[in-house]
Amino acid sequence: MRSFKLLVTCMLLSSASQLQAENKVSTEMVFGKIFSDETSKPLKDVTITAVLLNKKEKYTISDADGEFGLSELKPGVYKIIFEKDGYRKIVKDKITVKANSQIELNIEMEQNMYFDLAPSPLHFFQT
After folding, report:
1. Quick one: which of 68, 58, 70, 62 has its CA closest to 28?
2. Is 55 helix (H, G, I), strand (E, B) or coil?
3. pLDDT of res. 6
4. Is 3 within the bounds of a domain?
5. Which residue, 3, 24, 83, 90, is most buried by CB atoms nearer than 10 A?
6. What is the rounded CA–CA span in Å between residue 15 and residue 9?
7. Residue 12 falls within a domain, yes or no?
């Protein structure tokens, strides 16, 4: 009977510690704001991707105020990629995320003035 009580007590303690671990809030986060370099206005709908060890971990899209947040990232060294149509892609390498850390990145994106124009199919028939 005594060993049964000990077994039940161990199981309850194990369950309680597992619940505590599950309820912990992870605060590893990369956040910030994105602006147009030309107008200094916030840019919305920028895709922000966090890459860890050549594997896409998380992504988000900036809001109307240009703000973004990538939360609950695993500790490690990330590449953070910022992309928006009509703007040059920005890559921030070697962003080190540590346990319970927060990193702020404020980004200015430059408009892409170069367009890849393909010739018209009719171009090949002109002489």
Report:
1. 70
2. strand
3. 46
4. no
5. 90
6. 10
7. no
Average pLDDT over residues 5-13: 46
**Rounded distance between C-alpha atoms, residue 38 and residue 58, angstroms:** 28
pTM of structure: 0.69
Q: Letter for the amino acid at 94?
A: K
Cα–Cα distance between 108 and 14 in angstroms, integer?
49
Q: How far apart are CA 16 and CA 24, in angstroms?
A: 13
Is residue 39 over pLDDT 80?
yes
- The terminus-to-terminus CA distance of the chain in angstroms comes to 100
Residue 7 carries which side chain, given as an amino acid letter? L
| 51 compared with 119, residue with greater pLDDT | 51
Q: 80: domain CATH number?
A: 2.60.40.10
pLDDT at 125: 58
How far apart (Å, rounded) are the C-alpha atoms in residues 7 and 66? Answer: 55
Assign 59 to helix, strand or coil.
Answer: strand
Tally of structural domains, the chain: 1
pLDDT band at 21 (very low <50, low <70, confident <90, very high): very low
Question: Any idea of the CA torsion for 82, 62, 109, 49, to the nearest 10 degrees?
Answer: 0
